């Protein structure tokens, strides 16, 4: 049974409460909003609307929006990574932890969290339609953002996933996932487990992770319609197949944990039609 209200409405209610509280503390520190959910669950669609809502609500505050996908390695660098890990099928293409430019991500986060100063910063933009759907950077590969950033929205499908200690749980993560798990530590240390990052978390929690196959196919059809290039349905299925070991290892624990944000976390349960069936809030600080 659906709960009254959309993902966007519940998220705005949550953010309005906690962003107001954050700025009332007059800490002069940026607030990060993490939005995490499986591919196709509505992260980008709702994230853009949330960006507009916060920008319009908090006049005089600088609000920036980005996706972890925008920090993918260039097509050339991704090919080099695939060659380096040629025996690892999970790293043969963009998507999983390890396929992003973490130096670039660290530099951008440093601009957000660094000394409060006037100026601008550039956020990268990634074009998934390039190279027959393999993705890459186009000539318009960045967007200028005004500094200092007061609210930084970052969305991504694995934000909040907690890597496992391989020495303790070796049987769970042998093989290809061992490389991905090792790389995930770098993301968690930089973002959701970084003590310098004060954050609110929004989790879109699907009732069946297999929904990703249908959602991601819908997305690719839209990309082809808009840009003329993209993956075939079979390519999409093979693409999503590479994500499933990651979901199987981390996703249920992540959703149950309800701790994506260091300040507070909103967990919204959605069904195959992306209708809301549950809403839970957990305050941390």
Automatic annotation (TrEMBL):
Compartment(s) of residence? Cytoplasm; Nucleus
UniProt KW keywords: ATP-binding, Cytoplasm, Kinase, Nucleotide-binding, Nucleus, Transferase
Record's keyword annotation contains Cytoplasm = yes
Q: Which domain of life is it from?
A: Eukaryota
Identify the GO cellular component terms for this protein. cytoplasm; nucleus
Molecular function terms in GO for this entry? Answer: ATP binding; kinase activity
- Entry similarity comment: Belongs to the GLYK kinase family.
| This protein's name | Uncharacterized protein
């Amino acid at each position: 049974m659906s709960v009254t209200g959309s993902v966007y409405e519940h998220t705005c209610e949550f953010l309005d409460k906690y962003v107001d509280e954050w700025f009332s503390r007059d800490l002069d520190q940026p607030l990060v909003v993490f939005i995490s959910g499986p591919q196709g669950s509505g992260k980008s669609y709702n994230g853009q609307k949330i960006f507009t809502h916060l920008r319009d609500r908090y006049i005089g505050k600088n609000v920036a929006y980005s996706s972890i996908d925008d920090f993918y390695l260039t097509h050339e660098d991704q090919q080099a990574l695939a060659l380096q890990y040629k025996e690892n099928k999970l790293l043969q293409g963009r998507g999983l932890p390890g396929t992003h430019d973490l130096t670039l991500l660290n530099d951008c986060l440093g601009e957000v969290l660094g000394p409060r100063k006037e100026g601008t910063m550039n956020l990268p933009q990634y074009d998934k339609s390039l190279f027959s759907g393999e993705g890459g950077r186009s000539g318009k590969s960045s967007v200028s953002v005004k500094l200092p950033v007061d609210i930084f929205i970052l969305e991504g499908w694995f934000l909040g996933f907690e890597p496992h200690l391989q020495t303790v749980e070796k049987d769970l993560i042998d093989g290809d996932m061992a490389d991905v798990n090792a790389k995930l530590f770098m993301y968690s240390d930089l973002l959701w487990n970084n003590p310098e990052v004060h954050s609110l978390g929004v989790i879109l929690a699907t009732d069946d992770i297999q929904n990703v196959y249908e959602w991601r196919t819908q997305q690719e059809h839209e990309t082809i319609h808009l840009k003329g290039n993209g993956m075939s349905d079979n390519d999409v299925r093979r693409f999503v197949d590479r994500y499933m070991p990651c979901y199987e290892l981390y996703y249920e624990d992540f959703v149950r944990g309800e701790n994506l944000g260091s300040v507070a976390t909103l967990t919204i349960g959605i069904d195959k039609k992306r209708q809301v069936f549950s809403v839970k809030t957990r305050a941390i600080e």
